[in-house]
Amino acid sequence: MDRYKKVKIYKTFLFLTILGTTSGQFAKGASFPTDDDVPMVTGEVERREDDQELQFKYHDHEEITRYLRAVSARYPALTALYSIGKSVQGRDLWVMVVSASPYEHMIGKPDVKYVANIHGNEAVGRELLLHLIQYLVTSYDTDSYIKWLLDNTRIHLMPSMNPDGFLISREGQCDTIHGRHNARRYDLNRNFPDFFKANTKQPQPETDAVKEWISKIQFVVSGSLHGGALVASYPFDNTPSARICRSSVLCSVFQSYAHTPSIAPDDDVFRHLALVYSNNHAKMSRGVSCKSGSQRFDNGITNGAAWYPLTGGMQDYNYLWHGCMEITLEISCCKYPPAHELPKYWQDNKQSLIKYLAEAHRGAHGFVMDENGNPVERASVRVKGRDVTYHTTKYGEFWRILLPGTYRLEVSGEGYLPQEVEFFVIDSHPTLLNVTLHSAKRIDGGPYYRPGPPPPRPPPAPAGIFSTITKSINSFVTNLLG
Ligand SMILES: [Zn+2]
């Protein structure tokens, strides 16, 4: 039996297995989604006015909750609602799935996400995600592109990661930081583990919920929606030099690093992703500064650290810990503009929001299986020359967004012989790559192959050039300090 046949049969088997198990899990009301399913936590269903027509106004937490429940009741075949946890003050961190297969992960098809309102006073993204939900569910039957997207992608949308901060924010406040933090006054976008610098901030419930969420579902691409600027910012946000500058009197020595890009191994892909958002936006790509004297960005994109370095950001964490390519989308010069401006923001961002998610279908994806056609979970998948390791899901799936070109894939798994595969990526459609790993134990009873130690599991981020850079700069500083 050839490997493709095995994969097909395997996929069919798994699909049936999932269908057979999910209903029981829903009935039990499990509280956390996995790769397999999205448990329902909608509680009683309320049908209100909002499911017919979503107004352009700011919705408070209760209104959002009602709206999401109403949509999930009205579009049960296209949506599933779940909560990944609660904020400090006990508000649900809602996620709405929009997909032709909302309740289960479609094996071989990518999961993608947007997270908005991580800064409570940056409110536009929160409303745009509600409108995105509305647009997707109402366009499925009439728009062939949306139908294709929802048939082939599972889209997870979190309108607010910081509902407590939003509560104390005020409409019309463009530049203040009131409401930015969570209820314990932590900046959630400085609260994630950091590769370049140990993050000593106390982990917050909102951050912990997101960390658990993205460890359970392999997201392929993601966008984090912010306000206060108009730019698509991509990893890295942090840099080895920031590590020194913030912990030493030698800060001034390293000031020249302040606006130096911190280049990720997939810099070309991140720049492309940022440009997809910027170029599909009504005005972001013009790179016009928000107000006179403020920074302008060529083509509406920037490397995060080149703008300003930060520690504990969500986008670096998504990429280095979980192989999810996240960028930060600053979508409004005013953080909390008057509600009557919301239609304009929706029109400006609609095309970008949709086209960006479709980028999950670029590059290479496939399965890593053993000789018997069984999936190999947590196999290491590396593109030669790119010093970052992705891992396969429990179904052996992997996704690697890449621009057109020729690449070599290095695949290894504990107890298996490493494998290298050359492949091409073209622009028009993704490359399907199925890799078979052979057991390191020889069938003829000969000597055993002894693989090296398995790669570290998260939280350790992939080692490589970054650690080399960090170490060399550290030793430089050590020498300076004597
Ligand atoms: Zn922000």
UniProtKB/TrEMBL annotation:
SMART domains the record matches: Zn_pept
Keyword Transcription: no
Signal peptide: 1-24
Keyword flag Membrane: no
The protein's required cofactors: Zn(2+)
InterPro entries per the UniProt record, alphabetical: CarboxyPept-like_regulatory, CARBOXYPEPT_ZN_1, CARBOXYPEPT_ZN_2, Peptidase_M14, Peptidase_M14_domain
An MF annotation (GO) of this entry: carboxypeptidase activity
Annotated TM spans: none
A Pfam entry, by short name: Peptidase_M14
Active site (record annotation): E330 (proton donor/acceptor)
Keyword annotations: Carboxypeptidase, Glycoprotein, Hydrolase, Metal-binding, Protease, Signal, Zinc
Xref: Gene3D superfamilies: Carboxypeptidase-like, regulatory domain (2.60.40.1120), Zn peptidases (3.40.630.10)
CDD domains: M14_CP_N-E_like, Peptidase_M14NE-CP-C_like
Domain Peptidase M14 residues, every copy: 57-360
PROSITE patterns, alphabetized: CARBOXYPEPT_ZN_1, CARBOXYPEPT_ZN_2, PEPTIDASE_M14
Family (UniProt): Belongs to the peptidase M14 family.
Name of the protein in question: Carboxypeptidase M isoform X1
Species annotation: Bicyclus anynana (Squinting bush brown butterfly)
Gene assigned in the entry: LOC112046213
